[in-house]
Amino acid sequence: MCHKTTAVLYKTKDCPCLAERIMRQGSRKPTVLLTGASGFIGRNIAKAVIARGETDLRILVRPTTLLPESGKASIYVGDITDGDSLNTATAGADTIVNAATYTGTDAVTATQVNVDGTRNLLEAAARNGVSRFVQISTTAVYGIGPHRGAGTSLPHAPASMASRSRASAERLVLEAGGSVIRTGLVYGPGDEWFIPGLIRMANILGGPVGDGTSKLSVIDVGQLGGLIAALVGPRFAAEVSGPFHAAEPEPVSVARLLLHIQDKIAGPRWSASTDFEMSPTILLQGGFTSHQAALLSQDHWYESDRLWALTGLSPTAFTISAEAAFWYRHFAASWLREQPE
Prior knowledge:
two-stranded parallel ribbon
């Protein structure tokens, strides 16, 4: 018997759960619709889903999006901000993974993409009998720490417009019975914010904030893609819902991150410690936000074992791969040429 977990994703009474649908349709692979596949995280989810080979992948792209490396995925044109454009892509899908997000500062765009876009996808899922919904979110919904080993019940206190809108989107998905994956800080080829931001910080300060002992939850983007690919596979059918953290279980100190950056990317350039009291002010003067300064000076790490145990995957310890080091040396070239202050 189909176990109904949500009024939204199972509005249609005749909608069978994924496991039943596969049994009725023989050996057909379940179908996953992915949004945001042109982005940093979405690209790696698509790559991992295709590599795993357990599901047929559909990719939703806007008419203006260039997506040259779609591989074995089927391309559907649509826009999450236009609900009427989603019917063709969602019809016949078993799972939706929403990795489309806006991380800028414009409140209107944040609401249109992150909140209204998620709602449009959920409504399309309900109309077309989609049985699972996975939302890619962020631990930034918790706001400024310190956070040490917190679980997913930690109250939301987002500090930016983007995080507030993503928290609102989360609520829609959880109310619908879907899954929310709150990622730690994501690194790897294509990262334009996390490791480059650390390089900028260290250049401005001449090293970490204080002695760099604050710890962060981080995850390699390839490992993150692998987790999502496993989660949307046929093994889990429709029984997985609720919030999860996606990060390497062992948090990493800022000092260790900077040592690794120097070893793999930048070469020796920073001191082991700086003036802790003055650092936040210096970072604000250097263009960092108060939230970013707090993130780099306080613990922000979260319980992250559940998703690994659920998927049966084994995390690897933090390391910057040769491919990632190549990416960072080119993307952050101008900052790497700067002399630390």
